[in-house]
Structures are given as C-alpha cells and as structure tokens.
Amino acid sequence: EAQVTQNPRYLITVTGKKLTVTCSQNMNHEYMSWYRQDPGLGLRQIYYSMNVEVTDKGDVPEGYKVSRKEKRNFPLILESPSPNQTSLYFCASSLSGTATNQPQHFGDGTRLSIL
Amino acid sequence: AQSVTQLDSQVPVFEEAPVELRCNYSSSVSVYLFWYVQYPNQGLQLLLKYLSGSTLVKGINGFEAEFNKSQTSFHLRKPSVHISDTAEYFCAVSPRNFNKFYFGSGTKLNVKP
C-alpha cells in the first residue's frame, strides 16, 4: 500500500531535549516536505526536499533541521525544542522534485507537545 | 509574496443543501491550485487540482471548483452535501517554478441532519 509513515504519532517532551520525527514514503517520490498545522493558521511549510541531498527552507524553518540522505526518508529534527513548537506536524511527498503540479500524499500526523 | 485566504473559518449547512467554500489567493506568478480535505485525526487527502486548461475542475466525492483568474479565486462547490462531508477543507497554491506550497487557514464544514 502506498503510504507516508510518520513516527511517533504522539510525543510529550520537555524544553531543550533533542527529538527527531521520522518520515518514510514507499512511492519512490522525489519531493518531500514537512508542515506544521496550528489552529487558525492552516499548514505552514517548514522545509522541503526536491531529491536526495537537496533541501531548502519553507516559510517557518527556524528551530528545525532536516536531512535527506536516502530518497525514502526525510526526518525532522528539533535540536532544542521550545514550547512554541508545540503543534501538529505533517510529512508529505509527491512524485516530481522539480514540478509542484503533482498532488501531495500526507502522513497521519505527529502531535508534539513541548512543556 | 504569496498568500491564500479562506474567508470562512466555519460553514454550517444542512444535509442535501448546496455549499460553496471560498478561496482567494495572491501571487505574482501563475500558480497551480489544489483543494484538500482533512477528516478528524487524519492527514490531508487531495480533492481536486487545477493545473491549466478548463477552468472548471471536477474532483472526488462530487466536489468541483472553478478557477477565476481575474478574481484570483478558486472556490469549491458541491450541489448536495452529505453528513460524511463533515471535515476541514484546505485550499493550497504552488507558484510555478517556486517548489513551495502555501495553504489557507482552512474551512470547517459542518453538515447537519
């Protein structure tokens, strides 16, 4: 089954404790992206990747890191989480790395709470 | 700068009534346009997309949307809604050659029996 898998689905942690949210897709997609969803703000793009070793900032990259060492994986790293990063996070992928006319496939989300 | 505006945060409607969810965007270049639906505790699913050509596009579950270039709008419509359409709907744009996506703030559609 074609899917985007995020782990964990839920996480409660404390300020300053490094964490990684994993994302994996099995569709051989080139484009992958991370979003955060906050009430009243919709989804905002954090980082995206057009292919292996090619990443770039979205609209809200501060406090986040990503890497794309393999085509299928695109982890999101919070080196020193803060309470304002409490949010619902989505990973998404789409077929083409150079044309954004392809629909995105979304994971089920990771609800992150930072105390 | 790009932006997407969904003016209605919530839309209540009775079952079998028609509905329109509004989306306006701002962009200095041509864009691709999308509507996604999010059911509770799930990720987003594509409803329909506009890339080029005919300005009226049809999607899944009986939804359709019309692209209006002069008004920079992409409103979503359904002639007769069902209880199962209760969800949050997001409009998204991707400016051509920019490799980014911009989402609206979402519209919660609440279909009442």
What this model shows, in words?
The complex is a heterodimer of chains A (115) and B (113). Chain A is built from no helices and eleven strands. Chain A is an all-beta fold and 115 residues long. Chain A starts with a strand and ends with a strand. With 113 residues, chain B is mostly beta strands. In chain B, the strands form three sheets. In chain B, strands 2, 5, 6, 10, 11 and 12 form a six-stranded mixed sheet that branches. In chain B, strand 8 and strand 9 form a beta hairpin. The model of chain B has no long low-confidence stretch (mean pLDDT 93). Chains A and B meet through strand 4 and strand 5 of A and strand 5, strand 6, strand 10 and strand 11 of B.
Question: In short, what is this structure?
Answer:
The complex is a heterodimer of chains A (115) and B (113). Chain A has strands at residues 4-7, 10-13, 19-25, 31-38, 42-51, 54-57, 65-66, 76-78, 87-94, 105-106, 110-114.
SSE pattern of chain A, N- to C-terminal: EEEEEEEEEEE
Principal-axes geometry of chain A comes out as globular
Q: What is the makeup of the main sheet of chain A? A: 7 strands, mixed
Percent strand of chain A equals: over 45%
Low-pLDDT runs of 5+ residues of chain B are none
Characteristics of this structure?
heterodimer; A: 115 residues; mainly beta; seven-stranded mixed sheet; four-stranded antiparallel sheet; 11 strands; 50% strand; B: 113 residues; six-stranded mixed sheet; globular
Topology:
The complex is a heterodimer of chains A (115) and B (113).
Chain A lengths: L3 E4 L2 E4 L5 E7 L5 E8 L3 E10 L2 E4 L7 E2 L9 E3 L8 E8 L10 E2 L3 E5 L1
Parallel strand pairs in A: 2-11
Antiparallel strand pairs in A: 1-3, 3-8, 4-5, 4-9, 5-6, 7-8, 9-10, 9-11
Chain B lengths: L2 E3 L4 E5 L4 E3 L2 E3 L4 E8 L5 E7 L5 E3 L5 E5 L4 E6 L8 E9 L6 E2 L3 E6 L1
Parallel strand pairs in B: 2-12
Antiparallel strand pairs in B: 1-4, 3-9, 5-6, 5-10, 7-8, 8-9, 10-11, 10-12
